[in-house]
Amino acid sequence: MKILQFPLARVALTFILGIIFYQKYQPEPFLVFISLLIGILFLLFFHFLSKKKPIYQFIFGTLTLLISFNIGISTCLFHKETLRQNHYLNQIEDDSFHEIKLVVHEKLKSTPKNSRYVSVIHTIDNRQSFGKIILNIRKPNQIEDFPIGSHVKVTGSIYKSKNPFNPNQFDYGKYLENQEIYAQVYIDEKQMTIGKFESTLWSGFSNFRTKIIQNLKTSRFKTEELNIMIAFLLGQQQDISPEVLKDYQLAGAVHILSVSGLHVGFILLFVTFLLKPMANTKRNAVIKLIIILLSLWSYGILAGLAPSVVRSVTMFSFVAVGNHFRRTVNNFHTLLVSMLLILLWKPSFLFDIGFQLSYLALFFILWLQPLLSEIWQPKYKITQYIWDIVTVSFAAQIGTMPLSLYYFHQFPGLFFVTNIIVLPLLGIIMIVGLIAIITACFGKVSFLVVKPLEFLIELQNHIINWIASFEDFVLSNISFTTAMLWVSYVMIIAIIVWLKKPEFKRLSIALLSTIALQIVYIDTKFKTNNVKELIVFNTKKSTIITQRQNRFVTVYSNDSILNSLESNLSIQSYLVGNFCEAKEKKKLQNVFYFKNKRIMLIDSYAVYSEKIKPDVLIITHSPKLNFERLLTVYKPKEIVVDGSNFKSYVRLWESTCRKEKIPFHYTNEKGFYKI
């Protein structure tokens, strides 16, 4: 690969490996910074010697990569907020009440019960503090959203993020941690006091965006079409209905709902076009560049500075600077420099799904699309345009497919049809949409703009819905492990390298990598077929128990769960993550025998037989019973309590078990129970 011949590519790779190393092992800061200092001293020493002998040049190059690796670790340490003493995580106790003063930073998608905001803590119990937290306000008590920048004083318990409670579940706590958010607070209206408003650049842009959205709403847009436009042009997806979002996912068009390079590139062209009348003097050229950069970054902030937005704005900023100095911009260099700058600013972006997909898609478009475009050279412009869309879409899909399978476990088979039909329409929507956004900056949008835009978005939604209706072309519930992810990328890269320059050696590597993927898959299936386990899931309103024999799973639960098994995320995540299928669905029973253990279940009816002497006792749905007598009669070796029980009951049972020295497993604290 020619890209690895760039010194910057090797530096970027080792820098990224440093970030990954820190995420996995979290080394001591003192050792990291000392090794960095020693490395820099050695680097300077060998820099002077490198001109004398080739061996010193090799040592200098190796040291450069090692220091780049160390800088990746050091960057993570520098940005790790919890290492500072006054971070709120170092000042609080679990489940205790605190008086917290915070500033509202960002509006999140609401849940059925709560309005949610990312907020920045200023003080806890009158002590100086800092750090981001999620503020949850119960909906019946809150009518209007806070303006971003509002000071709020709240009294409540801070709940730290926890690990997933069920097997193969999405780790929401880790997702929040990558954004430097480590806890949440839940309050009613009576537990908060709204104070002054703090004006900052971020709050100014956020509230300006809110003003634009309000003006769009008063312009009599249909709700669904307006929500699509707000997501498409302003990066706010909070109000899109789950049904519409699912259609876009099934059609392979969910990327349309995010602000990306398509939008930012259009902004660059639009602003450049507006500035064309300015005379081409040196002074005006500098003014043009400043206006373009300000326009790009203002739009980026307005769109919320999501990882894909930051990537696009950074890259097109380099393009604008390159155009100013009349220099040809190397796309790969621009890609690498933008990635390094973004990760230096915020290394946690590396673990953001949007960031990963965005860079992979762009890399494969730059690398693979020229090869695909050579397959056919259309004579007419219209066929060339369609062929370009197909090759760009295919290149991006090839690059992101393993990662998409790993995260989402589905593949939209009609993605190329979606792009061919929707992308031309998208360009028109973008032009009319920008006119609507600019008009909304000053007031209501004209009927002459609203109706055509509404019609275009409605047409797009109908097309997406029609494509999504062909569900047979959507491959879903695809099991895909981490090992399969890495080997898949090795195989894809090896095949492309061979296609670019067919040689026997390259063909051999491509074939070996293909065989390696098959071996990994077979090995995973073999391990799957040699597992026996029983799991008690953590669920709040119901009880779910699964019994697994190799790749076949029997699910025990109530009728409502068993009848909607395909839509139950806890069960589906477990099945997909373990290459399993639900063979049987059965109602809960009071006695299980598994791995030479007697397991008894007691539910709200509290009906049980004293003849059975269980090894494990499972308690569900808060039965009213004499717990001490129960332990005396049965003498169980372990007590398991799921999330369907009242917490007050659980605390009493736990206290009794502690006195009797009987192991106690509460799934709402320790997660699922497995035998």
Shape annotation: globular
Q: Helical region count? A: 22
How are the strands of the biggest sheet laid out side by side?
A: 1-2-4-6-5
Number of strands: 19
Work out the strand percent: 15-25%
Name the helicity range. 40-55%
Mean pLDDT figure: 84
Compute the number of structural domains.
Answer: 6
**Secondary-structure content class:** alpha+beta
Distance between the termini: 48 Å
The unreliable regions are none
Q: Biggest β-sheet, characterized?
A: 5 strands, mixed, barrel
> What does the radius of gyration come to?
29 Å
Explain what you see.
The protein has six domains: 2-79; 88-198, OB fold (Dihydrolipoamide Acetyltransferase, E2P) (Beta Barrel), CATH 2.40.50; 213-350 and 425-475, no CATH class; 352-412, no CATH class; 482-528; 531-675, no CATH class. Helix content is 53%, strand content 16%. The chain has a five-stranded mixed beta barrel with strand order 1-2-4-6-5. A hairpin with a 6-residue loop joins strand 1 and strand 2 (114-124). Helix 8 runs parallel beside helix 10 (307-324). The longest helix has 28 residues, at 381-408. The radius of gyration is 29 Å and the shape is globular. The two termini are 48 Å apart. The model has no long low-confidence stretch (mean pLDDT 84).
Summary tags:
alpha+beta; 19 strands; 6 domains; single chain; 22 helices; five-stranded mixed β-sheet
Quick overview of this protein structure:
With 675 residues, the protein is an alpha+beta fold.
Reconstruct the topology from this structure.
Blueprint: H1 7-25, H2 29-49, H3 54-79, E1 97-107, E2 114-124, E3 127-128, E4 132-138, E5 150-160, H4 172-177, E6 181-187, E7 192-197, H5 201-217, H6 223-234, H7 242-250, H8 261-274, H9 282-302, H10 307-324, H11 331-345, H12 353-373, H13 381-408, E8 411-412, H14 415-440, H15 447-468, E9 474-475, H16 482-500, H17 504-528, E10 532-536, E11 545-549, E12 552-557, H18 559-563, H19 569-577, E13 581-587, E14 591-594, E15 597-602, E16 616-619, H20 627-634, E17 638-641, H21 647-660, E18 664-666, H22 667-670, E19 673-674
Parallel strand pairs: 4-6, 12-13, 15-16, 16-17, 17-18
Antiparallel strand pairs: 1-2, 1-5, 2-3, 2-4, 5-6, 5-7, 8-9, 10-11, 10-19, 11-12, 14-15
Helix pairs in contact: 1-3, 1-11, 2-3, 5-6, 6-15, 7-15, 8-9, 8-10, 9-10, 10-11, 11-12, 12-13, 13-14, 13-16, 14-15, 16-17
